[in-house]
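Thread title: Can someone regenerate the structure for this chain?

I was given the following input by a collaborator and told the matching structure tokens would be attached. They weren't. Posting the sequence so someone can regenerate them.
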Amino acid sequence: MGLLTVKGKGGWMPISDISDCNVRVFEDGAPHLDIPAKDATGWIKVHTRQSSVWHLVWKIAGLAIRENEITSGYKQGVSPDDT
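Best answer:
Regenerated them for you:
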């Protein structure tokens, strides 16, 4: 397992037992599928160091989905034909 670090005032540092993490994620576009490139930035609050990395990935994915829904008006998992 890798060491998760966060960027603070003094540079990169290991996270504490409970941390708030500022994250930024990117998704490449797929022009042949009419999917634009996207990025999202936000906070993952009260992440416990003892939790699985997959739990953190799940939180980050949720942040990216919510950000995409807010900025594009498109609900993930809902076909435009369903709206």
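The first strand starts at residue 5 and ends at 8.
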